[in-house]
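Message: Just now I want nothing more than another pair of eyes on a protein record. I am handing you a single protein, as its sequence and its fold in token form. As I understand it, each token names a local backbone shape. Take your time, and here it is.
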Amino acid sequence: MHIALDGSDLASAKLDGTTVYVRELLPRLAKILKQGGHRVTVFSHSPIAPNVFGDDVKINITKGRRFWTQTVLSRVLFRVKPDLLFLPIQTVPLYRPAALKVVATIHDLDFLEYPKMYEWKNQLLLRWFSRVVARNATRLIAITNSTKHAIIKYYQRAAEDISVVHHGFDKKNFSLPVSEEEKERVLTNLRNKYNIKDNSILFVGGLQPKKNVGRLIDAFEILKNRGHQVQLVIVSGYAWKEKNVLDKIAHSDHREDIRVLRKVPYCDLAGFYWNSLVSVLPSVAEGFGLPILEAMACGTPVVTSNLSAMPEVAGGAALLIDPQLTDSLVQGLEKILTDEQTRLKYINLGLARVADFSWDKCAEETANAINRALNKETVTIQ
């Protein structure tokens, strides 16, 4: 069979959970599909870095930017006529060959659960694209059971049409230090480069409203007022509706101990986890929450939300808090900061938990979903 892969995100310069997923998954998936006897073509609107795929995987670059999936890719599919199209993002060409099977990944439906946390333009696009893909893909991949339940709730898609495939994490980049000497060398360079201290609370992620960073700042101020000698380090890209968070930091009495770092190279992230007393992800909603696994793999205890996908990903190996209560967040962080036995408990639980996740496993389960879709009748547009 001829399998088409949407590789457009491989040409993206941004680095978030979705682009990490695409970059880690597609090369592994293409290899597995080729080994299974399929012919694989990767489609993109821009050149893909060399050596991402093997020589036996065809790359089809067809330029175009605006609504590329709905326009350019749609036309190419009628010309090339593959048997199945895999989209690692939650969209699907509305117009496509009638016989084409489609497998698509839905990362989250948080914009339906928390619409006020999204800009209205993004809200409209997400609603339209997600509705089309949820109702028209031959098979869906949900990255957590939390997302699967949301698909069933909002789009009434049959549970048997949805495969739950968890993310993996980069085991080469996120791990324990090889030695204390290596750790000290990395951390000395890191602290000098970014002007951070050794006693830090770490947040990795965007500053959009669902990440709940405003409440984290409130909790941090309480901890500082109680005498905790800690720094809050925020490693973040740029996100929508982040002005309120930045204003809150600017007016904080402890703003000198809050560091917002942008465009941090991926290779530096492990050092931030090693440098931190605790990693916190206090979001009210997440599609998955990769920083949970990254922190655990680096031997950093995790405090995270008891909502959405986070308890599923943490699997009992993180200290869960109610993200809607500042006191709950303060108590969770303070427990890790002051109780060494609790801290060691969550370090060890986290190291055991991450053994359940890998990108190789993710690729194998994705290939299984694709093969299941190849044996099913196509779904017509509703």
In short: The longest strand covers residues 39-44. The mean pLDDT is 93.
